[in-house]
Structures are given as structure tokens and as C-alpha cells.
Amino acid sequence: HYDPSIKKILPHSKMYTIQIGNERFILSGASLSSDAPSYFTNYFSQSANSDQVLFIDRSPRIFQYIYSHLQGYHVEIDDADTFTGLFSDALYYHLPQLRQLILNSDYYYANIGGESIKVSKKLLSGRGNTPNFFTVANDSLYKDISDIITDMNWIRPPPQAAPSLNRSPILFKELVHMLQGAEPEIRSPEHRRSLIKEAKYYRFNALAEKLQNIIEVYNPFTGAQEIAVSLDSIN
């Protein structure tokens, strides 16, 4: 739970300068102590370094998120590459609270067909649709490597890319809409088969079964083929 108290690891009112790449950031001792012990507090706690500029060769764009986090703001992450970069730097800077916030994020992130996808963990945790690709990938890519890096005490985390899939982002979004409760909009038998194939790929087994229970029927009153859904597949 949230604890507003801040340990006095560094003098709270003293300002410290950190240069990340080609950008400088100034943070108070209170901000740096709010997520500690860390790379920063370990450095500035040494008397010889207390008035020095700390130079670090990492991404200033990613550090903007860390800067906001240390100041006490909620950090909103919109894309998979930023999520993965922030996770790597939370490990690099030894920020325990940020690491836990990322691992306990409410969202899964991935690059699907070249498009960044952000989807609610709660949405993908429904009965019959979990475990799935995202639950397994999230644990293996983020949680497991986090534990390994911590245990091995590496100087910096290895290069890491967000989960990337050569699948259709359009079909994935349609599956997500169905998981949100929307009725399937089946345009053709081929479209239905594609949706079933994608649902099975992601291990959305209950959704795949629902799609398999959709049948085409001929309506003699309209003279057209229509989509019908078995009553057994409607929750």
C-alpha cells in the first residue's frame, strides 16, 4: 500500500544534479530517498560525491518517467517499448518501488504486427482465457529476468525488446472488443476462421470456442446469409 513517509537517506532539502545522456535533472534529497536504496542514494551518500554531478550514460527520454516517479507523480506508460525501457532502467538504477510498480502494472504491453498494444490484465484473466500468451510472456520476460539480474548482481541489464509478434493487430483488437463483451461482427466464413486462429494462438480458449459456435444460416425472408450464435455460447 501507499506509504507517504520518506526515509531520511539523503538530506530532504538538499538538491542533487544528475546528468542522463545529454540532459540534466535536479532532484531533492527527499525525491531521491522516496525510492531507495538506489544507484543515486548510494552515490550521493558518499561525502566526496554529495556536491558532484552524477553522470550516467542512459536514455534521458526514459529517465523523464523516472524523474516524475521520484517526484511522486503517477507514471502513465502508453507503449511497449517505453514499458520495457523503463523496466530495464528501474533495474539499472536499483529502484525497488518502481520495479514493483512495473511488475504489478494493470496492463500487458506488446508489439503486434508493428503496432504497440496496451491491454488490461483484468480483461485477459477471464475464465477459460487464461493462462494465455500474455500471462506467460509477462512472467518469463519481466519477472523472471528481474529475479535473475537481482541474483546475479549484474552491472547493467542485458538489451531487452518488448514482446513482438508478427500477427494482425486488427484481428487482435477485434478479439479484445469481444472480450469486452461486444458481439462478434463476422464478415465472412474466412473472417471467422481467422478470428478463431488468432484466438487459439493467444490461448483465448473460451473465446475461440464461442467463435466456433457461430454458424451461418440462410434467411428466406431476406434472401441473405446471416450469422447465428448458439445459445450455449452466450454467457
Automatic annotation (TrEMBL):
Entry's Gene Ontology BP terms: protein homooligomerization
- Per its UniProt record, what InterPro entries does this chain match? BTB/POZ_dom (IPR000210), SKP1/BTB/POZ_sf (IPR011333), T1-type_BTB (IPR003131)
Q: Domain named BTB: which ranges?
A: 14-110, 111-219
Transmembrane residue ranges? none
What residue range is the signal peptide?
none
The family database entries (Pfam families) matched by this protein are listed as: BTB_2
Name of the protein this chain belongs to = BTB domain-containing protein
**Species whose genome carries this gene:** Cyberlindnera jadinii (strain ATCC 18201 / CBS 1600 / BCRC 20928 / JCM 3617 / NBRC 0987 / NRRL Y-1542) (Torula yeast)
